[in-house]
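User: Could you go from structure to sequence for me? I need the amino acid at each position, not a summary. Structure tokens:
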């Protein structure tokens, strides 16, 4: 296994972080981010979402059929009223690859931001629309209003920013294609049926460059930031990060 690159405050070389690591810093826990990218101490891995991955692969294949024919997928028109077609580009497979992806250098922070996007659509005027695939199973209406879905919005905005840094004209609107597994069938019969829905988000990338400057400052510090805490409804102080909470509880016992 290749040793991952860690931040070296004495180095002048650009330092690369992924879209998910930036989300870890912004949306989750700066302390865990520092431990990971500066010290090489990562969070324990989570179980892979293999079913979600299968849906992601099948949706890509389906949209690729329309890409080859340069036709709009019916979902684009029927649900979002988007006059566009899946974007053809020689580097699309690279952009989609988890081990390569698409990247851009932010010169002020000397940080390279990278990510593996799901799809890109193109309008008649040449503007690109970032699209991402998501899977779930719920009886609740699918929307972007839930708090945890702010992560999805940030994800779309990061891809918008990276594409713009690579010289592309990108529409402010981005889309999530949601596959919702139905639970109202009388039996399983060896198959799942999904309702597909397109959700549109008006992206705002103005936060990204400041975030990259903050990332640089965080990693350049001699010590990690203290774990964040909050006060619960009972007036008790608790950790915002479940990993930090576990670490502190384990440390107290040992």
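Assistant: Here is the amino acid at each position, in order:
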């Amino acid at each position: 296994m290749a040793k991952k690159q860690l931040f070296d405050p004495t180095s002048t070389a650009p330092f690369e972080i992924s879209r998910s690591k930036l989300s870890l810093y912004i949306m989750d826990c700066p302390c865990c981010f520092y431990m990971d990218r500066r010290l090489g101490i990562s969070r324990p891995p989570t179980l892979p979402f293999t079913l979600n991955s299968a849906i992601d692969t099948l949706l890509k294949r389906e949209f690729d059929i329309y890409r080859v024919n340069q036709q709009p997928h019916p979902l684009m028109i029927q649900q979002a009223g988007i006059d566009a077609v899946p974007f053809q580009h020689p580097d699309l497979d690279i952009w989609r690859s988890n081990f390569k992806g698409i990247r851009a250098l932010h010169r002020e922070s000397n940080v390279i931001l990278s990510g593996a996007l799901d799809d890109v659509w193109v309008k008649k005027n040449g503007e690109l629309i970032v699209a991402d695939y998501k899977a779930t199973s719920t009886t609740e209406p699918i929307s972007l209003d839930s708090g945890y879905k702010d992560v999805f919005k940030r994800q779309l905005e990061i891809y918008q920013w990276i594409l713009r840094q690579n010289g592309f004209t990108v529409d402010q609107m981005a889309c999530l294609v949601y596959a919702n597994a139905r639970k109202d069938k009388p039996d399983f019969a060896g198959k799942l049926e999904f309702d597909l829905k397109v959700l549109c988000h008006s992206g705002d990338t103005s936060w990204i460059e400041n975030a990259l400057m903050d990332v640089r400052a965080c990693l350049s510090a001699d010590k990690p930031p203290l774990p964040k805490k909050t006060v619960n409804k009972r007036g008790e102080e608790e950790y915002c990060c479940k990993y930090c909470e576990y670490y502190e509880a384990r440390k107290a016992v040992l």
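One structural detail worth keeping in mind: The mean pLDDT is 93.
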